[in-house]
Model the fold of this input.
Amino acid sequence: MISEMARDFAQDKVIPFAMHWDQSHEFPLETLREMGQLGLLGMTISEEFEGAGLDTVSYALAVMEISKGCSSVAVTMCVNHLVGSILQDYGSLEQKERYLKDLASGREIGSFCLTEPQAGSDAQNQKTRATKTDRGWLLQGKKAWITNGTYASVFVVTAVTAEDASGKKEITAFLVPREAKGLILGKPEHKMGQCASNTIEVTLEGVELPLDAVIGGENGFKVMMNGLNSGRIGIAALCCGIARAAIREAVNYANERVAFGSPIANLQAIQFKIADMVTSLEAAELLTLKAAWIKDSGKNYMEAASMAKVFASEMVNRVTAEALQIHGGNGYVREYLVEKLYRDARITTIYEGTSEIQRLVIGRGVLKKGFL
Amino acid sequence: MKIFICCKQVPDVAMTIQIKDGKFISEGMNYVLNAYDASCVEESLVLKEKYGAEVTLVLIGDEAGKEALRKGLAMGADNAFHIMDPALNQIGSQAAAKVLQAFFKGRDFDFILTGKQAQDSDMGLAGGILSEMLNLPYVTNAVGLDMADNKVVVRRQGDEGVEVIHMPMPSLITCSNDMNDPRIPSLKGIMASKKKPMEQLSLADLGLSADEVLRESKKSSLKSFSLPPARKSGAKIEGDAQTLVATLMEKLTKEAKVL
Done:
């Protein structure tokens, strides 16, 4: 029923506008507000803080449906969810009261600032510094590729707070309100895909924060890693949604397009492509839902989330490429949705941890624990 | 105010309908709340928000009917009755009205709403038959509802415009899906729907026997289904402008005879 509801929403409020948003680079703020009212922006946040109190499996199913409509809307939903989850898991009661209700209900949108121009996969090497002052903290640095930045009311920002003799850094997470002095929001990036999502550079020029702006105390690194881990399940689901849309488009096109005297769906070359596409999508969906289920059962889901993310993101790149191939030249022009889906898919092996990082996580995890 | 909505679960029209040997293949179909009935739910909820009301759903159907009822409850209806009995599989409008007549016997209500037809069979009969059986004033094809002076103000789409009819209560009104845009249930609504009362009733609970239903069913019967014939593909004329015009003129005058 949750899938059906998200599907209905995407059908009525997302799909009719997705091509327009993509081409105009318009951020669908009104649509997001409506999603908030329906509970789609705070799905796993407890009802106490105006969330829907659902589990991660439900969340993943909903992201799949929304992403099938438009992955830009889905990624905005995912990042908002990531910030909400961090607040739910690590925020003080006061921080939750101040920010979480607004994020869970979609009245406000959140943003997560980890990546820097010179520190993406190498997150330990971030340069943003937070120094203690008489009154609190002073933040200095630059964050790159920040989703939702222009529209966010609160930013979770990670910064280095100490460094030992060996060069090991202590990372702390801060809640920075939009109105903080010295918080400079850059212009939206012009991206290849997911054009209706908002991505900017955020500069912290001597941002002064009170002591209680810290979230998760000493565990800044854990806040960051847990955030990314759970975020990976959302992105894996997002990939499945794009792939589902691409296969739908490819199937419709193959049934309509006539070549050699009959629809190309009658050609084995096309049938085999479709077979591989749906099979790999099915596998990605199962990996995604399994990771969500492990998370819901309270067990360590780090490798499971990485497996889902790396598999689903590489799957959607193959699937959208094949869907475009089935469309022939038509797939290369903007009149056809598959062209958008192909561009939208490309980022997924990069953001929320590159494929290379996912493989590190999986490989190291398995080798450390042993494999029976 | 007590509003009852008679609902039906119908195959999801977004799916491909399959027919074999004159029979509808229900296997693998998703069943959803009839769109016309969803409009009844939406309109009732607006009246409820405005004037206060208890909105009750009633549905005749098998297990699949539960999902349709859940959808209405998730939208915001208060409670539901699910009439389920092996003798009720594949019944027509006449028998359905008979069962609903038994259901409404002795029940207190202000008005009954139902979709002007169901998306599956498009018969549009059950509402009219039920109003006759219950001896209720009846109006069809409502596109808007409101209340005034203890009457239901029905805006009805007629042949030549919208008619405004003041219906006394109790009465029965069938509704168009042009009436509104049914709300998408919120996640909170979906969760809450699990806790809302849904009472299951059998024929025996309604004081009816399978024979009585069968007798009503026999008054009309559905012999077979068939898909509409596939549309013939159009003719494509090729050539330069002169040939195109000449060929088209020839076809319009001699073949189609419209000129």
Q: What stands out?
A: DSSP finds ten helices and ten strands in chain A. The mean pLDDT of chain A is 95. The domain at 112-218 of chain A is CATH 2.40.110.10 (Butyryl-CoA Dehydrogenase, subunit A; domain 2). Chain A has three domains: 2-109, 112-218, 222-369.
